[in-house]
Amino acid sequence: MSSGTGITDADGHPVTITVTPATPGEDPASALRIGIRRTPPAGEHVWSCTPEAARELAAGLLRAAEEAENAPAGRPVTVEAGRLRRGDVRDGDRAMTVESVRTDGSTVHVTWKSGAGRSWTQAYAADAAITLKRRLPEGR
Fold first, then answer.
1. Can you say how many angstroms the Cα of residue 29 is from the centroid of all Cα atoms in its chain?
2. What does the pLDDT look like over 119-139, one tens digit per residue?
């Protein structure tokens, strides 16, 4: 991982995180560890853990990322249909997530997926206003 990942310290400064298999030392058990090195602007912190603990950490990070992404935004945002992206969530009573978007001239074909797993496609004028509950960051 590098400082371009968006990881920052408490003051908002970029932090580089390096994760590698630990270098075996005199103790053969150290070969079964994962090295985690955090390099903030001042100083360096080095930890190690077992592969099992590394998997638990990764699972915890994934759960936290999903919770953060699925948390409702402060207010709904309205975008033009032509600017919808995969992962955008429609505002309304039922969960509807954008699965894909295809533009055909001035018409936008949006494939939605319901919380129950049902998919369907709707056509919109490219400039039609669509109100979203949540919008994923660009590039996702």
1. 34
2. 999 999 999 999 888 776 665
Single out the residue of 73, 65, 60, 46 nearest to residue 134, CA to CA.
Answer: 73
DSSP character for 24? P
Closest CA to 54 of 38, 36, 40, 66: 36
> Comparing C-alpha atoms, which of 18, 5, 16 is closest to residue 41?
16
Main-chain phi, psi angles of 106, to 5 degrees? -95, 10
Against a cut of 0.85, is the pTM above it? no
Phi-psi map region of 6: left, alpha, beta (phi>0 left; psi -120 to 50 alpha): left
pLDDT digits 0-9 by tens, 91-123: 777 878 999 999 998 999 999 998 888 999 999
Q: In Å, what is the CA distance from 24 to each residue of 18, 21, 27, 44, 57?
A: 17, 9, 7, 20, 22
In DSSP notation, 103-129 reads: EETTEEEEEEEETTS-EEEEEEETT-E
E runs forming strands in 50-106: 77-80, 89-90, 96-104
Under DSSP, the state recorded for 137 is: P
